[in-house]
């Protein structure tokens, strides 16, 4: 080969190498340490105690401060049992035919105040959350007590082993323990203190908390995962006004949007203004639904409830209220995001999902059978929170009900008054949003549909459905379990237990230099922030 | 003067007493309380714990006992604890007051710097094109809600300059330039509206004074128009303008809630609304009393200022 050809070949290879490095995908990039991430927070958290709250407003910032026994892999967008990874537990095993779940804990973990983490803390946390008779403390509010109804006892035979003993097998327990709603609390700090400060084992500590303004987290230098976290800190900046926050995202004052708060229209306008912004369409695991108080006439009549459900065209709802930014589905999150959602062909058979004209005709027929018609219209009071998204939802429903002869009066109620009213069942009918921690049937069904559950706001009660819930909960074969869950979903929609309108879609927005912050199908489970880094 | 001040102090105390009863009763008339909100937001209610908290916060006592307890604490300098955050109320309120006061003062400064000169010019050039233009601008200011204008300013800056104000409060000691910018924008939005009001008051007040004989005499004697207007006419027209400035300042302290929300400033006004929604009685009661004190003091200051501005005004 001539010298010229060798030189040309060498230059060509060098050029190729430069091009490859320049345009190589980010996947191959090594994470960089350093930097402060600015995250939009929509409101001041009601408290800092995850176990005492039922809102993303607390889970989102505080997840970075704690750890769970196990966690959904933050780098995998669809959560399932297969994506659960160890955290405070190094490994675990099911024993005794699925009736005992044993965790073997890490031995190198310290709380932020320097105390050692042991099995005592795990036992304490979950005895308190399940309100065990001998629990050493009580939570002021305990929204997820029902998740642990199947737990008979929690034992800590030594400092680094914990056993959850169950009445019957329950594969979902692991899913619920992996949820952002299930951090481990320190046994040496009373629950009242946890409301205002964080003593966790997590990758970040609370540096500063200015109510209504900022939650400032700083890297935990003693974190048990060496080399993590990458970030020096995270600032959760509280901005109540959505337009202001979106403007701040556009100019880079805020790096990451709040899940569920950047609407489809806002994300489109952001993308048009700043094409390099990353907008990921993801699920929130939050659904819009109608609640009808079964304790009050005429909603004790299943025909009336079914008529109401038939009256609402779900697809029109998604178009009108969400501008297409929602998915139709039954009580479990639909595909492609959710694992358990009913298939489209089955959905079309359910009330409100078929031919709207036929459904409305059937609604009128059912109302007539219940004694309501043009001469005796059904009159209902539709309560809703006095917030734009709820009012839009409720207004649409009122209009749909009018088309079948139901006269609904819209009553807007301040949030602080609405929740207690619903909890005390002092409402007739209402619009509701339900967020579910993990995409798991047990977490959803037992909390929202089980007879006697405090968060079963409609007081729907069916022994048959309860037994179906128990059956699917104990089923170890995934395919059989999936079919049982499908059957439950169909039953709940046919009986209009809590008619579902749609599952909200998130337009998760962030700047491209924010790496490894991958939205999952539930907004509650990906905020550990341990793997996140900034490419700048 | 002393007698007058003592009389005003007496009236102020009576006013504050009345205000305290009004706010105390109104808050308790609103449905729900902090215990309901805390306990019944999560769905699972522990009735024993709920009863304990109600007792701990003193909400199970008769309303008169609760009122007397609150007033007694205030008189001893104890503002109580926030029901929501369980920290001293003063700890929450204290950092917010300077922010709202600064914004109110800056807004007023903008209003005065814009409104008074334009009002004078409009009066002196009455019924000219300039007068009509200035009146249209002032009408626009009165018509535009300040929060809307604030949002337009932000969106305009984002669209044209790719810049938005900082989302976190920047104290002057940290970065004076950024601090000024952070407050200037909302001050402009609010000040424009207030300047519109001041402009109209100034205009009508100056017009009235310009018709006086002494003004005609001064002009006839050959005094320059500028001197006549600024030294003689404005001085005599100032009293109603000062009154409006005082009222506007008092209004701004409580009325900046939406502006603070749009510009994300952690002031008192914005926090008051949150506290009301949470039925955080100690915070709401104390903040409303603070606003009442500001209103009373600013009215008193304005009244005292009359005596200085106009030697004919004397207080017995």
Characterise this structure.
The complex is a heterodimer of chains A (536) and B (316). Chain A is α+β, with helices and mostly antiparallel strands. Chain A has 16 helices and 18 strands. Chain A has helices at 3-23, 56-62, 119-129, 172-178, 191-194, 242-251, 264-273, 302-311, 314-322, 344-347, 356-369, 388-402, 415-423, 441-448, 463-474, 478-494, and strands at residues 36-41, 70-72, 84-86, 89-95, 100-105, 151-158, 161-166, 204-210, 214-219, 233-238, 278-292, 326-327, 379-385, 407-413, 429-435, 500-510, 514-515, 533-534. In chain A, α15 (463-474) packs antiparallel against α16 (478-494). Chain B is mainly α. Chain B has helices spanning 2-29, 34-40, 47-56, 63-75, 89-93, 97-124, 129-143, 146-161, 176-210, 213-220, 225-255, 257-262, 268-277, 281-309. The longest helix of chain B is centred in the middle third of the chain and has 35 residues, at 176-210. The mean pLDDT of chain B is 88. Classes of the chains: A alpha+beta (536), B mainly alpha (316). At the A-B interface, α6 and α13 of A face α2, α8 and α13 of B.
- First and last CA, distance of chain A: 45 Å
Q: In terms of structural class, how would the helical and strand content of chain A be classed? A: alpha+beta
The count of DSSP E runs of length 2 or more, i.e. the number of strands of chain B, is 0
By DSSP, the count of extended strands of chain A is: 18
